[in-house]
Amino acid sequence: MAEQRGDGRGTGDVRGGGQDAGESRRRGVRPEEARAWEELVATARRTVSDGLVVGTSGNVSVRVGDTVLVTPSGVPYDRLRTDDVTGVDLDGRQVLGALVPTSELPMHLAVYRTTGARAVVHTHAVHATAVSTLVSELPLIHYMAAALGGPVRVAPYATYGTDELAENMLRALADRSGCLLQNHGTITHGTTLDQAYDRTAQLEWMCRLWLTAASVPGLSPSLLSGEQLAEVQEQLRGYGQRR
Ligand SMILES: [Zn+2]
């Protein structure tokens, strides 16, 4: 719940601006950023309507050039407006808007600095978060793990919003487009908001599948081998080229 702190809309002073030392860096919103913001808000709202996020317990970002547009901290997505565009540079300095960016900014920026990602989705989706408390890697219950780059790792726990959590996340994300965060949630990235969102939905679905299969008393689910997954990864590569 701590991620809901800092609702700039409620405090007045943040929204009014003028007190922040970073104010001078703020600039106008470019047309491509305005379009990206609309897509970001739609994606954020979808995480709520699809049950992946409760309240404001997740965040979404999209990269436009060297600017990262990101959901502000603690503002319900249905209250986000066209002129609420919130953006930072790759060092986290605010360049757009007056609302306080999400407290999970270090994770988002770490992904953009180290990968070619253009969008990041972070949630506390219930099944994925449950799995993050049980194992250090999601067992290979389904071949869709290949769509995330391989077996999904769990980043060791660290306090939300810290550089330590961002570092743990980066290690878990090596050669993957998604991972779980222990006792916290999910993070996925992609080349578009839709792709990052879909990866989160797939990850949550796989976690739900494993929990369901693993919960049958007296039985344990069969798992795929690394070889079987590699074959699927090979096929997925071909799939992309045939279109
Ligand atoms: Zn979180």
UniProtKB/TrEMBL annotation:
For this record, an example GO cellular component is: cytosol
Q: What Gene3D superfamilies does its record include?
A: Class II aldolase/adducin N-terminal domain (3.40.225.10)
- Where would I find the Class II aldolase/adducin N-terminal domain in this sequence? 38-211
Q: Which GO terms describe its molecular function?
A: aldehyde-lyase activity; metal ion binding
InterPro entries given for it? Answer: Aldolase_class_II_sugar_metab, Aldolase_II/adducin_N, Aldolase_II/adducin_N_sf
- Region (Disordered): which ranges? 1-32
Please provide an example of a Pfam family that matches this protein in its UniProt record.
Aldolase_II
Spell out the PANTHER family in the cross-references: 3-OXO-TETRONATE 4-PHOSPHATE DECARBOXYLASE-RELATED, FUCULOSE PHOSPHATE ALDOLASE
Q: What name appears for this protein in its UniProt entry? A: Class II aldolase/adducin family protein
Q: Top-down, what is the taxonomic lineage of the species of origin?
A: Bacteria, Bacillati, Actinomycetota, Actinomycetes, Kitasatosporales
